[in-house]
Fold this protein.
Amino acid sequence: MITTDLSLAKSELQRNAIIAIPTETVYGLAGNAFNEVAIAKIFALKQRPLYNPLIVHIKSAGYLDHVAKDIPQIARQLADKFWPGPLTLVLPKQVVIPDIVTAGKDTVAVRVPSHPMTQDLLQQLDFPIAAPSANPFGSISPTTAQHVDSYFAQDLNVILDGGTCQRGIESTIVGFSEGKAIIYRLGSLAIEAIETEVGKVTIRTLDDHAPAAPGMLSKHYAPKTPTVMSVDIPSTLAAYQGKRIGLLVFQSVHEDIPLNHQEVLSPSGDLEEAAQRLYAAMHRLDSLDLEVIVAEQFPEIGIGQTLNDKLRRASSD
Ligand code: TXA
Ligand code: MG
């Protein structure tokens, strides 16, 4: 049920049921992070492999030491600067975090979400919330309560409706090695913003067989409709002539394609607006029974890099 009833959400979590929660990035499938039974339900519902760890959502930076230890100074600095917000830190875990949450790793991924409804909920709970994005493994992440409902209506008593996610793309995941920051997953916090704070960072290269973060699996966030990325829309359209084409473009419509088969993400050229709308646009185009979705490459700056990364994963075979 789609609802805004926080006390119902709270009591579901307290009896170790799973609910959907809004965050500023995407919706999450949430359960008590201290309870193995609740966490097992998340993995089962999402059909997520057990080797793929979850993010633990905490109420404030002040709570970090309850779930993580040996926290490097630059991690604290990033937390102070960007929390609440779309930044996830990977840190050595405290024993209270069950192994199933971290897929047996000795590190835990942690963030403080900024969505007011989920902040409110976290403040009322005496445990943190583990939550992956609220989509079946490998499919497009949800940015509205309706998206979650279309995936899991039968399975959830509570889908907390917090409106459209403000950021629309998952959090940026940062780990640490020898006091230096390493980006494990590009997300809605731009690399440049992190580098302004802590200097040059490394981006960990993709490794399909042992991904550092499964957000890095090459095929991810994928529409069911075959998707191709393009730097030159007219020539890609020519290559697919005669097919039913969906078009996902940054700024401007193309005359050759029916308007309702197009999604223009930001007419003014604002990458943050494009990010906010990307997944909803993919969801809609994917529902039209098209033969191919042609997605325009974004400028490789700021979260344009993240958007291109998501498109590459949506389009790879
Ligand atoms: O924005 C977000 O981060 C959303 C909202 C709901 O908070 N959550 C999200 O969760 O995207 P999920 O499960 O879809 O992605 C979590 C990512 C996965 O790629 C996972 O491998 C990585 O975090 N991760 C979790 N724990 C990790 C760890 N200890 N080391 C490295 N990566 C980790
Ligand atoms: Mg996900």
